[in-house]
Specification:
The protein is an alpha/beta fold and about 260 residues long. It is about 35% helix and about 25% strand. It has helices at about 65-75, 105-120, 155-165, 185-210, 225, 240-255, and strands at about 5-10, 10-20, 25-35, 55-60, 90, 95, 125-130, 135-140, 145-155, 215-220, 235. Helix 5 (about 225) links the parallel strand 10 (about 215-220) and strand 11. Helix 2 (about 105-120) packs across helix 6.
Amino acid sequence: MAFLAIDVGNTRLKWALFDQARPGASVLAHGVEFLDHIHRLADTQWAALPPPAHMLGCCVAAHPVRRSVEEQMEELWAVPAHWVVASAGEAGVSNGYDHPSRLGADRWVAMIGARHRMLAGGPPRPLVVVMVGTAVTVEAVDQHGRFLGGLILPGHGIMLRALMSGTAGLHVPTGEVREFPTNTSDALTSGGTFAIAGAIERMVRHLRERCGMEPVCYMTGGAGWKMAPHIPVPFELVETLIFDGLLVIAASRRGG
């Protein structure tokens, strides 16, 4: 019973076809497509796939993008599209957001995936879940599985574009991360990197003080590898955290 998991971000769509809808399922196929080209998925990446029995996805892009994905599915398979919307609680995680349904689906799914991953490896501990992409999110989940709150800040690209648009003559190539930058390119790259690293470090400290335990930190997202060398706290880089969460949710909803 193949299961199609889809993660639609701000710039790219990532998908994976699993042999079943449960944690630990084997990947049959996977791929990535930029949002500008998702209209051709049925003719390219998905054309030769075996029909999935069901699908679950999370989408943070605008409704027309989600509809385009659904149209590609309809062209190939008689499989309804199901999209995760954050709720008051699911799969062992409770939602402390002021308005739970307004929490980004990708943030919610990543937290559920991280919680399951942590419990599979040991006793319950607090979690800091970091996603590094077009935007950066830093979430705090306590040892009981309650989402306490999170930070949202611009990713590297948005930071640089904001500075370039708001500062006369500031158009320089991407630099290197340096402790003491001595040119503008390095100063910009280092500033953005250390701003993100500082937000992560601050959240780890807040959660440690709140829970009286050392948190587990997971990082994911397309730009996670860029940040990895500069994170000041122990962490695990997990590229599949969204898919992990979708598998957990799918299994929970199906009683698995």
